[in-house]
Write a structure and sequence with these properties.
This protein has a domain at 26-101 and 148-237: 3-Layer(aba) Sandwich (Rossmann fold), CATH 3.40.50. With 247 residues, the chain is of the alpha+beta class. The radius of gyration is 27 Å and the shape is elongated. It has 6 helices and 8 strands.
């Protein structure tokens, strides 16, 4: 009987962990590294023209279009002018995104199981008496799970310098570059893209001098600004048309 209690509580513990992973992961972590090149970074007040191009490794083409549009809206909010022809741009901003191969990680997790003690008491008026008390116990086991790195790499290039440089030396045209990585158990790149964009743009035009760690809650306002369509609708109508109407 004791073994049955142990198995039942073990199954319950596993179920709770599964539910927590699938539905309760309310925190998204993003790690960002940003660098400044030798070329001067254009200040927002310069109204420099920028051509944005996004591409995803083994990702839907429409997601790349979504990232392009959302990035352009953010740049224009900052004072830059986005153009649709790279030949008309002062700068080109490339956005490469995707997901790395899964890796197997492990952790030690506590499990709780039921435990029962039985006591037989001999003697007394009614002969043998039987008494049962209940309690709980804890044991630990190794849990294995898949982990993915969802990433976004942004590179700002001086277009004229890029065009004038030989192919093997075009790195000299890099003005700014940043890589943001979000580790997690889901392959849904689109779901974490607002968080990747938010973390990357926190360091737009900066050299972080090392890895910066960001922790966002699902309800954080900043990543919400990068949800598909929400910023665009606000810029066109002056209000957030994607929000639920008030009662």
């Amino acid at each position: 009987m004791q073994r049955h209690h142990k198995v039942a509580f073990r199954m319950l513990g596993g179920l709770l962990v599964l539910l927590g992973v699938e539905s309760g992961c309310s925190v998204v972590r993003v790690h960002t590294n940003a660098y400044l090149g030798d070329q001067p970074f254009p200040p927002a007040e310069s109204a420099s023209t920028i051509f944005v191009e996004a591409s995803g490794a083994d990702q839907p083409a429409l997601l790349a279009r979504e990232v392009t549009r959302t990035t352009a809206i953010e740049l224009e909010r900052r004072g830059y002018v986005c153009v649709g022809d790279p030949s008309e741009a002062d700068y080109v901003l490339t956005c490469a995104f995707g997901i790395n191969e899964a890796r197997i990680e492990s952790r030690t997790v506590p499990r709780t199981y039921g435990r029962r003690w039985s006591t037989y008491i001999y003697g007394g008026h009614h002969g043998v008496r039987y008494s049962t008390t209940y309690g709980t116990g804890t044991y630990y086991e190794r849990e294995y799970y898949r982990q993915y790195d969802r990433y976004l790499m942004m590179t700002l290039l001086d277009r004229a310098r890029f065009d004038d440089s030989p192919e093997e030396n075009r790195d000299v045209a890099i003005v700014w570059q940043a890589e943001s990585v979000s580790p997690g158990g889901s392959r849904n790149v689109r779901g974490v893209m607002p968080f990747l964009l938010a973390a990357t743009f926190e360091h737009f035009g900066e050299d972080t001098g090392g890895l910066r760690r960001h922790t966002y809650h699902q309800s954080s306002d900043r990543p919400k600004d990068f949800m598909a369509g929400s910023r665009e609708q606000r810029s066109l109508t002056g209000r957030d048309e994607s929000a639920d109407p008030e009662d």
